[in-house]
Amino acid sequence: MENKQKVLELKSVSAYYKEGGQKRCILDSVSLTLYEGEIVGLLGPSGSGKSTLCRCVLGLLKEYEGEVIHYTSLPQMIFQDPYASLNPRKRIQWILEEPLKVHQSLPSSERVERVDEVLIKVGLTPDIKFRYPRELSGGQRQRVSIALAVITGTHFILADEPLSALDVTIQAQILTLLQELVQEEGFCLLLVSHDLDVVHMVSDRILEIRDSKVVELKDIIQASKGHRI
């Protein structure tokens, strides 16, 4: 990874919850580094600490020990439920243009051009921008969510269980799309899931939260080389 740009580094991060008056460790001295151009799977069952680690990464957890270093901006998000994450009162064009207004101050003509470009990139036709989220299928809504994450040219995307609300056929399509976008755009994708079969299909590295620590599952990646999509 010597030639890769770092996007995130955690140094000895520990986090605790109070449970029945007792202090319970949920993350124990976690250290990891993420780089541009890689897909990193993050595994763990419910309650393992995945959400806590994600909150640290997103800057939402204020009480922890150690360091969380962002070498680029905070990550863009792809959420589990694409319907809940998209404003139901706004058309897709407004939804996708908003971050361009806020973060890049692009003129109207360039925003429209960028919206069309990114819709095509995620496998949708530009005319879909005139619809509301409720008028789209689950797979289309998740593609719009992905478009929203990439539209500003981010270096880092955190995808939190992005396939769980989709059927199996659409899951494979979305996984392929994410892999292609990482290859084309060069951002880092942190793919959070409880499903090993999902993450091993596309991940360059797989991390697992186990007993409050993060371990790398190197054997799984080596065994699956050449067999992933």
How would you sum up this structure, described in words?
- The chain is of the alpha/beta class.
- It folds into 2 domains: 1-75 and 155-229, 3-Layer(aba) Sandwich (Rossmann fold); 80-153, no CATH class.
- The protein is built from 8 helices and 9 strands.
- The protein has helices spanning 50-57, 82-85, 92-103, 108-121, 138-150, 168-185, 196-200, 218-224; strands spanning 6-19, 22-35, 39-43, 65-70, 76-78, 156-160, 188-193, 205-210, 213-216.
- The strands form 2 sheets. The protein has a 6-stranded mixed beta sheet with strand order 5-6-7-3-8-9.
- A hairpin with a 2-residue loop joins strand 1 (6-19) and strand 2 (22-35).
- Helix 3 (92-103) crosses helix 4, helix 4 (108-121) crosses helix 5 (138-150) and helix 5 runs parallel beside helix 6.
- The longest helix is centred in the last third of the chain and has 18 residues, at 168-185.
- 34% of the residues are buried.
- The model has no long low-confidence stretch (mean pLDDT 91).
Topology:
Elements: E1 6-19, E2 22-35, E3 39-43, H1 50-57, E4 65-70, E5 76-78, H2 82-85, H3 92-103, H4 108-121, H5 138-150, E6 156-160, H6 168-185, E7 188-193, H7 196-200, E8 205-210, E9 213-216, H8 218-224
Parallel strand pairs: 3-7, 3-8, 5-6, 6-7
Antiparallel strand pairs: 1-2, 1-4, 8-9
Helix pairs in contact: 3-4, 4-5, 5-6
Which spans have pLDDT < 50 for at least 5 consecutive residues?
none
Radius of gyration: 18 Å
Number of strands: 9
Q: If helices are DSSP runs of H or I spanning 4 or more residues, what is the number of helices? A: 8
For the record, the count of structural domains works out to 2
CATH topology of the largest domain: Rossmann fold
Integer average pLDDT: 91
**If strands are numbered along the chain, what order do they take across the biggest sheet?**
5-6-7-3-8-9
Report strand %.
Answer: 25-35%
CATH class of the largest domain: Alpha Beta
